[in-house]
Design brief:
It is built from one helix and eleven strands, in the order βββαββββββββ. By secondary structure, it is mainly beta. The strands form two sheets. The protein has an eight-stranded mixed sheet with strand order 6-7-8-9-4-3-10-11. A hairpin with a 5-residue loop joins β6 and β7.
Length: about 140
């Protein structure tokens, strides 16, 4: 089953279409994600080639705690964080669930980097829990 999903930034300058089913969706509690959102980020991973982008996101690359190089892409006008690509996940792109037009179209399967979550974090006990970096994932 192939469902098309759409999304974009707050101001609408950057829009995207996803033409594949998600590989996995997770809530990340690493410190980098906490800096981005002041909380955990809800992410869904898609094959990179399944993402069509209109508009030109800006990007910022840094070394994550995992040691991977992560390039984060965001709207240059409103700053909405949209995507992330990691050297640890070639061929896969993280999409921030909150930027989907229908964020309820995906459900997270796990909390990752849960050891970094603040003491007040509400971690859904029905989701898998990984203390740090999860094992590798492969495109379907």
């Amino acid at each position: 089953m192939n469902t098309t999903r759409t999304g974009g930034c707050l101001c609408g300058q950057v829009r995207y279409t996803l033409n594949a089913e998600p590989v996995i969706s997770r809530i990340c509690w690493c410190r980098d994600c906490q800096h981005l959102s002041s909380n955990g980020t809800v992410n869904v991973i898609f094959p990179s080639e399944a993402i069509e982008i209109t508009g030109t996101p800006a990007s910022y690359t840094s070394t994550a705690e995992s040691g991977n190089q992560v390039s984060r892409r965001f709207c240059p006008r409103c700053g909405s964080h949209l995507f992330a690509d990691s050297t640890g996940r070639p061929g896969l792109t993280v999409v921030r669930v909150g930027t989907l037009d229908d964020p309820s179209s995906v459900k997270p399967a796990a909390n990752i980097w849960s050891a970094s979550a603040p003491a007040w974090a509400c971690l859904d006990e029905t989701l898998d829990r990984v203390d740090r970096q999860p094992g590798p994932i492969k495109p379907r």
